[in-house]
Amino acid sequence: MVRLGFIIGFIALLGVLLSGLAAYRVHDQELALDRIALARAIDVHASLVQDRLTERELLARVASGLFRAPSVLKPNMLEPLRSAIYAFKTDFVVAGWVARLQPNELAAAQSAISAAGFPRPQIRDYSDKPIDPASLTQPIDVLLDLEPRSDETKALPGRSYDQDPVRSAMLARARIEKRSVASDPVPLLRGNGPIGVIVAAPVIPEGATEPAGFVTFSYELASLMLTNDDMSLFSVALKDPRKEGGELVANDQGIVSTRMGADGPPPSATRTVSFGGRDWQLGYYAKTNSLRRAEQTAIIVAAIGFAITAMVCGLFGYVAYNNLRLSREIQVRIGFERRLTAVIDELNHRVKNILAVIQSIVTRTLRHGSDIDVARELLIGRIHAMSNVVSLLSESQWQGVKLKGLFEARAIPHADRIAVTGPDIAVSARAAQSLSLLFFELASHSDEGLSLVGKHPHITAAWTVTGEEPDEVFHFRWEEFNTSEATRRPDSDFGLILLDRVAPEALGGTAKRYFTDVSYVYELTAPMQTVVDMTERDRTDKISAPVRPVR
């Protein structure tokens, strides 16, 4: 009994230790995965926000660059820019033209606003009190035109921004720095309107040093920076530059409100985005407590481990099986991703090679001064030959092509007149592409009418393999009987390059061509190692082999 109790106690202790270890590992894995997923989601959101801000700042720069007018007091100043600013399709609330007016220009500005059709043309301060030109000693910034024009916005032109602390500070900074500047968060359109930001771009006439005015665009903060998805892993808040420790947050309806960040937990992460010549800090708050979730998962795993430990042997079999399966799945996934990368790299390499060959074919075939009908026939045939060899390679999973398969009627012309002899060896993908073009060139130039004896040329294609491994040599001989230099179609420039240089160099061998008394002969000699290329075949075989877990 004592011995049995000792064994049971030892197994129970071992089970507790293993259960605790499993809980610890699950805790770390869950915590790490949650943090990685949250960090990736935050980076994506911050990148999208930065792209959105850059696009809107670019709109202000483009609008200010396109803004050219003979006078800042001209009615409908934004009329030439309407198609440009709407072409960007950004969600601005109001686009405006704020002119910098001298005291003696207020009367003309009032007339311009009235001529533009706005109901309140009188120049007034931001609280809608009329401005006396005699009380002014320096220029003021007045809104003269805006887009879109609605019942809510038509009453805005004529307002001076000099008494508005947020807008006047923005315009002053834009005037001094001579670049687009963003304002602090501010209610738009009205005092209780949606909270947003305004970006102002100065318009500086040619030869001037001071801006004549500013093109402004206002955007709601909710859609610009604070958009929160219900399915998102986090909520986002904007640090309020107007209040130390304050944050701006948007609810599900897009209504922005202010809260004090010190009242709650710190953000899980912060990101900085640039807009309007200033940095904005976004705080990201995780919607779920990753640590608590990881602890709960670990507790569940430990409880399951303790329960299974009571079943003695079941614990070890269950844990071992699940750990092994998890390990194999991870290894299979890693191996699959590596294999996929290798396949993509190999495919890119082969596609580039094929495209390079096709480019060379087209360039050489359609050279300047060539007969278009003959060139079209040769070009179609050469590309068809390449298509055929690629089809054969695809059928063999790029493991090579039987040499006799390159003499099929669909691959080369006059295949019925060619007597093919030789061992049916499987040549490599690279050699197959070169030989396919080579055979087409030879066959396509053997059909120039009837020979002097009144018969079509009789063609033989023979190859042999001599020597012992690894020094075996491949010999190929093409011979056209009943032909002569006078009756055979002359080889094209592309054909001569292919026969004499490209094909031999691709196979690492040599070639020669000549006429006998009764025939035309082309001979090619190359090492079998290059023709077969076991290195390429092994690499392809490894890529196409199924992914298996490491045991």
UniProtKB/TrEMBL annotation:
Signal peptide: none annotated. The chain crosses the membrane at residues 298-321. InterPro entries: CHASE_dom, CHASE_sf, Sig_transdc_His_kinase_HWE. Its main location: membrane. One of its GO terms (molecular function) is protein histidine kinase activity. It comes from Bradyrhizobium stylosanthis. Keywords: ATP-binding, Kinase, Membrane, Nucleotide-binding, Phosphoprotein, Transferase, Transmembrane, Transmembrane helix. It is found in: Membrane. This is histidine kinase.
